[in-house]
Amino acid sequence: MEKEQYLNDLKDIKEMMSRSSRFISLSGGSGISVGLIALAGAWAAWQSVYQNLELTAYGKTLMSDGNLTRLLGIAAATLLLSLAFGIYFTTRETKKRNQKIWDHQTRRLLVNLAIPLLAGGILCLLLLFDGLVGLMPGLTLIFYGLALVNASKYTLTELRSLGVLEIALGLAAIHFVSVGLLFWAIGFGALQIVYGIVVPLKYKP
Predict the structure, then answer these.
(1) 156, 87, 65, 75: which is closest to 120 by C-alpha?
(2) Between 136-151 and 104-129, two packed helices, what is the crossing angle to 10 degrees?
(3) What is the pLDDT of residue 126?
(4) Residue 178, class by beta-carbon neighbours within 10 Å (0-12 exposed, 13-18 middle, 19+ buried)?
(5) Which among 73, 68, 62 is positioned nearest to 49, based on CA atoms?
(6) Confidence check: pLDDT of 4 > 90
(7) How far apart are CA 144 and CA 121, in angstroms?
(8) 8: Cα separation from own chain's centroid
(9) What are the angstrom distances between the C-alpha of 111 and each of 6, 24, 28, 152, 155?
(10) HSE of 82 in the Cβ direction (CA atoms, 13 Å)?
(11) Residues contacting 196, CB < 8 A, separation 6+
């Protein structure tokens, strides 16, 4: 009897530890808003920069300082808006469920997300300044997918599946470099929106 109670207590503790990080992945509004922002960013990048470039995967692409500045500005705006909306909707969801958003499990989740994202971000900047613009959509998808797979062990298993799809799209974007931005829009935009709609419904209490 005592052993059974002990196992039940351990199960309860494990469930409590995973709740906040689980809710981070369950915020439907966060996934949908990030996806819409990504689609807007992809459209802006195409209109202002990409449609006038002759892209190659492993060769340098001539790009003016103005286009480089515009591309970095769009990327920064997309990232900051995504973070802002993600934090807002995640915080709102957590408060609605009367749960604590910041704990040891959440820190582990964010650290495992951050390591591949930071490494990928630095690599992409180095390659971008070297003129390898054609690799950007694919590499950002791949490193984002690796980050999701790396963090999935601390949250929902569906995050791992999303990460694998992002990696596959990234590889396709590098192979079909002329439509790499389209794959980027599908990965960061459409897939995020689908995830934000489907997964919260699946785990709806």
Answers:
(1) 75
(2) 160
(3) 93
(4) middle
(5) 68
(6) no
(7) 10
(8) 35
(9) 31, 14, 22, 12, 13
(10) 20
(11) 27, 28, 29, 30, 31, 32, 33, 34, 35
User: Which of 27-36, 54-63, 94-103 has the highest mean predicted lDDT (pLDDT)?
Assistant: 27-36
Q: Is the per-residue pLDDT at 205 higher than 70?
A: no
- The residue type of 102 is W
pLDDT at 64: 80
pLDDT bin (cut points 50, 70, 90) of residue 132 is confident
42 contacts 75 by C-beta, under 8 angstroms: no
- Of the candidates 33, 51, 40, the one whose C-alpha atom is nearest the C-alpha of residue 180 is 51
pLDDT score at 137? 93
Work out the pLDDT band at 7, boundaries 50, 70, 90. low
Tell the residue number behind the tokens 């808006």, with chain if given: 81
Q: Per the structure block, which two tokens stand in for 100?
A: 């604590």
Burial of 38 (0-12, 13-18, 19+ CB in 10 A): buried
Q: Torsion angle of alpha carbons 105, 110, 116, 120, nearest 10°? A: 180
Residue whose C-alpha is closest to residue 139's, from 150, 152, 153, 128: 128
Average pLDDT, the chain: 82
Spatial contact of 36 and 189, defined as CB atoms under 8 Å apart: yes
- What is the C-alpha to C-alpha distance for residues 36 and 130, in angstroms, rounded to an integer? 30
